[in-house]
Specification:
Two copies of one chain form a homodimer. The first copy, chain A, has helices spanning 17-24, 28-36, 43-56, 62-69, 88-100, 114-125, 141-146, 173-186, 202-217, 234-246, 259-271, 305-320, and strands at residues 74-79, 104-109, 131-134, 154-157, 168-171, 192-195, 227-228, 253-256, 281-283, 300-302, 331-334, 337-339. By secondary structure, chain A is of the alpha/beta class. In chain A, strands 2-1-3-4-5-11 form a six-stranded parallel β-sheet, sandwiched between helices. At the A-B interface, helix 4, helix 5, strand 2 and helix 6 of A face helix 4, helix 5, strand 2, helix 6 and helix 11 of B. The structure holds a DNA duplex.
DNA sequence: TTATTGTCTGTAATCGATTACATTGACATT
DNA sequence: AATGTCAATGTAATCGATTACAGACAATAA
């Protein structure tokens, strides 16, 4: 079949390297070289080619190029859900670094659906991306079987995955959780509850360890009835609130494994007439963005999310290079910052008995950005 | 060059259709057919091929396939920023529809950067996607020159673009804004301010028209000093608050072109000791998610975002079909829903002068008259 | 002069799939 | 027996780029 004349086509559409070559009176090899390494082409020829490209509006076909060079200059980031803005600063940082290096970022929102995960796994196996960044807490379903390691460079951010020998960039969850609970203890709390993360989530487990560390340090026994299973989602907070309310001897403070959970815990309590921090103190983890709209201001641990994203992306770039052997997987662990707001009450030395209602913190809106 | 043995490679990696064909003792054409249209292959052969595929972990190379069939089954959605959760429900709906039809969605976050836009424009021109969904309010820089129409099916959601003859799915912004301002008028407000959207944003302009319509209907002159330029971003709200505070004769109510602006307007006022709705009434537009954490509850217009996303995606699927000619661009305009919360005060018939007895507890939610 | 070097360019193989067309053989029809 | 039909499969062209290799030519060295 003869190639159709390009004259009837939209500018820049359907134009191939052969059309440009013909127009410039050179071979396709020369056109390709003029684009990829201009210094290897004489100045006169380059001008000819440039003109032909400008006249035709030629853009190289990506599929053809990808096929030939066996690389797409694309990275896939798998996130469990974009409804949660927790991931946005990470992804922005990742995108900054990658695009600087000429890579594109595909955000794959799995929404915790196996089906969608399988879709993205296929994308990976089909060679559509040169690298993968996981923020999901587990390997995509289809790759679990096949073993993702060695397939394509893969990096974990803000989440460790058991058994996977992959580079990971995350927060020092255990020590941060420890500091957070220490903070509660310093304000007189002894009976402290905990809403956990998802069962298999290592970061959540580390946060629970930090919680136990802090209690152990002051010789307080861990009470299983004060540990409520959560899932990093709002629902976990409501469920925990029900457990909390059912308790005869309630804790004076609660450490939620993340902010989303903490916020919904507080809202559920509010619906039952309990207020924070007057009736219970609550701390969260992550310092997500929309907390600024939430009242009372939640005391929490800020993860250096942008920094983690940046470092992980830079590391991934190293691993995607084909001219150098990939370095062994690194494990980067950054410290968190305690953000003190108004969700914790200082109950002094009376070992956790709620006092007569007294306001220790002004319930004003948190400070505005300049 | 001889093809290297696959034995040393990771399972499923580097396996081509030829490897499968060889193993199954058939031709590559048969393998391809067994995958694409199993009914065209005998049962025995199909079993052979299936087994070879299972044993090798073969996944067809996407670049090769895309090159041959001139299609990628990918759609690009361009958004100005994922920090704003406004887009999330739209994108989720779009993704639902597309993935159901076997298409993938690439979310391109331009963050209002020309450079990033150019990057995505190149993606389009390079044939990396079969369709485009724009939520950015303007065409990507590089396509502006080249003329995006006809290049690849493109659909607009929640935003009309001047001069572009493209299908658009958006809210009935003008009539919705009209109803919103009518709502203020019904509660006694006559002197009403407006924070606009970005200058070139048609939806913003429509909202301003609706605002003017409502004022005209009651014979109130539009006062230019009560119209403050905004940008749909939080900054616009703070700036408007400064203008508002500088005013000698302040309006009793303000209509912000979107919620992000409204929220920051309210926060800025709060920082100066003014409270909503006691000192000013405020309404927004969009009903974004995190409003649920904001106090006071913002009265606003809910756009049917998921519905718009769904319809747009379904329309785009039609346009991407190659077996049927593309229908002419449609313009779908859906009604909005007034969400009544607690940011508007009924000031009765006294034509907009603040009442003397003022609420002293700013935290309490005001009760609205039915 | 001849050999050598280096620059520029073209020819053709290649990447891994899909698919138009050709071939084969089994079976039915005449 | 001759012919036609149909299902199943194979052969080879094709998609649009990149790049190994080779050739042409000019400049330089011997």
């Amino acid at each position: 079949m003869r190639r159709p004349s390009t004259s009837s086509l939209a500018f820049g559409h359907g134009v191939t390297i052969r059309d440009v070559a013909r127009r410039a009176g050179v071979s396709t090899a020369t056109v390709s070289r003029a684009l990829a390494s201009p210094e290897r082409v004489s100045e006169a020829t380059r001008a000819l080619v440039d003109r032909a490209i400008a006249e035709t509006g030629y853009t190289p076909n990506a599929s053809a190029r990808n096929l030939r060079v066996r690389s797409t200059r694309m990275v896939l980031a798998l996130v469990p859900g974009m409804t949660n803005t927790f991931f946005t600063p990470i992804l922005n940082a990742v995108e900054d670094v990658l695009s600087e290096a000429g890579y594109g970022l595909i955000i794959g929102d799995t929404r915790n659906s196996r089906e969608r995960e399988a879709h993205y796994a296929r994308l990976i196996r089909a060679g559509q991306v040169d690298g993968v960044i996981l923020l999901t807490g587990h390997l995509p379903a289809e790759n679990e079987r096949a073993g993702i390691e060695g397939l394509v460079p893969t990096t974990l951010i803000c989440i460790d995955i058991p058994r996977a020998n992959l580079p990971v960039f995350h927060a020092a969850s255990r020590s941060a959780a420890r500091r957070l609970v220490d903070y509660l203890i310093a304000r007189g709390h002894r009976r402290i509850g905990h809403i956990t993360g998802p069962k298999n989530n290592l970061e959540g487990l580390e946060r629970m360890r930090g919680y136990k560390d802090a209690l152990a340090a002051i010789g307080v026994e861990v009470e299983p009835t004060l540990i409520w299973p959560g899932d990093f989602m709002p629902e976990g907070g409501s469920a925990a609130a029900r457990s909390f309310l059912a308790l005869a001897d309630r804790p004076t403070a609660v450490f939620a494994a993340n902010d989303e959970t903490a916020v919904n815990f507080i809202r559920s309590l509010a619906a039952s007439g309990l207020s924070v921090p007057d009736d219970v103190s609550v701390v969260g983890f992550d310092d997500i963005e929309y907390l600024q709209f939430f009242s009372p201001g939640l005391t929490t641990m800020r993860q250096p999310r942008a920094e983690l994203g940046r470092l992980a992306a830079e590391d991934l770039l190293q691993r995607m290079r084909r001219d150098t052997p990939a370095p062994p997987p690194v494990r980067v662990r950054l410290e968190c910052e305690l953000i003190e707001r108004h969700s914790v009450r200082d109950i002094g030395a009376d070992k956790g008995r709620p006092r007569a209602p007294r306001r220790t913190e002004p319930k004003t809106l948190p400070t505005l950005p300049a």
